[in-house]
């Protein structure tokens, strides 16, 4: 079993993933920005879950907008847990509104949370993973980078940047035996705080100029929900279950991408074309060895455990 650090575990996918992995027998470090303040109720929910179901779950403060906080969280896991071999990059925030009405500062903040935040966590954990000779970086991305629905422009842009950063980092992590997995959930309108807590555009004057489109924005959630396949429960639990399935797979056997889409938008077909195009391009450059994680011999692994146990 793995020792897992999850970012953004206070609610939604991160919270449910912490529960699922604890139940599966992993050692889970669930991180959130303010576990002894605004997130205290969520911290207690997770601790109560672990007490009721058995398993090892701890909560650690981690604000992805701070390199110091990311470094401290990883240091705490290594000091108190002894090892760390899986990081789940899940923290993120949603913006809803007219793209022009978001100021440059608005969008910079979103990129800071959704993109640079993951990079900060990688910078905190990669020295350890390289040193131990392996591990897994699992990113909770989004099908939105393919579907690109209206009125979510800055968010879609941030998830595209997040995805590209994950792919680029994978090239450099693979030679050290560090696997990368990108889990791409489709639209989920219940069971998370994404829509209720979404940020609206700061420039009210520009938003007013788009007033004739307000009825469309108002039914954005309803329009998304109408896409769900009848009889299927569009719950974030499915994403947590998929992450649990992936982490049970052996080193080298984890998928680079996987899609959980209750709208059946056809994202898998686009992913397949993009994968073949990218891999062919990288092979033509002569860098094909960067496309897959290097296998490590058992003798090379630290005594604390295998990289993807």
UniProtKB/TrEMBL annotation:
<dbReference type="Pfam" id="PF00106">
    <property type="entry name" value="adh_short"/>
</dbReference>
<protein>
    <submittedName>
        <fullName>Oxidoreductase</fullName>
    </submittedName>
</protein>
<dbReference type="InterPro" id="IPR051911">
    <property type="entry name" value="SDR_oxidoreductase"/>
</dbReference>
<dbReference type="InterPro" id="IPR002347">
    <property type="entry name" value="SDR_fam"/>
</dbReference>
<dbReference type="InterPro" id="IPR036291">
    <property type="entry name" value="NAD(P)-bd_dom_sf"/>
</dbReference>
């Amino acid at each position: 079993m793995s020792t897992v650090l999850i970012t953004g575990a206070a609610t939604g996918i991160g919270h449910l993933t912490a529960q699922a992995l604890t139940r599966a027998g992993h050692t889970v470090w669930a991180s959130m920005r303010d576990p002894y303040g605004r997130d205290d109720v969520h911290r207690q929910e997770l601790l109560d879950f672990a007490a009721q179901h058995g398993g090892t779950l701890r909560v650690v403060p981690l604000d992805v907008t701070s390199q110091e906080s990311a470094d401290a969280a990883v240091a705490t896991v290594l000091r108190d847990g002894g090892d760390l071999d899986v990081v789940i990059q899940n923290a993120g925030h949603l913006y809803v509104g007219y793209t022009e009405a978001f100021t440059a500062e608005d969008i910079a903040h979103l990129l800071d949370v959704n993109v640079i935040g993951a990079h900060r966590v990688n910078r905190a954990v990669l020295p350890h993973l390289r040193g131990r000779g392996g591990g897994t970086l699992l990113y909770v991305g989004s099908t939105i980078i393919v579907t690109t629905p209206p009125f979510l422009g800055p968010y879609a842009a941030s998830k595209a940047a997040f995805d590209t950063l994950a792919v680029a980092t994978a090239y450099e992590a693979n030679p050290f035996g560090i696997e990368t997995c990108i889990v791409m959930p489709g639209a989920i309108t219940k069971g998370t705080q994404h829509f209720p807590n979404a940020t609206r555009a700061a420039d009210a004057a520009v938003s007013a100029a788009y007033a004739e489109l307000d009825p469309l924005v108002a039914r954005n959630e309803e329009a998304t929900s109408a896409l769900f396949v009848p009889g299927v429960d569009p719950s974030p639990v499915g994403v947590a279950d998929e992450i649990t399935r992936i982490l049970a797979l052996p080193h080298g056997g984890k998928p680079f991408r996987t899609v959980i889409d209750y709208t059946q938008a056809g994202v898998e077909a686009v992913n397949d074309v993009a994968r073949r195009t990218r891999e062919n391009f990288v092979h033509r450059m002569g860098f094909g060895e960067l496309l897959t994680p290097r296998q490590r011999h058992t003798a090379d692994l630290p005594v604390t455990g295998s990289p993807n146990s």
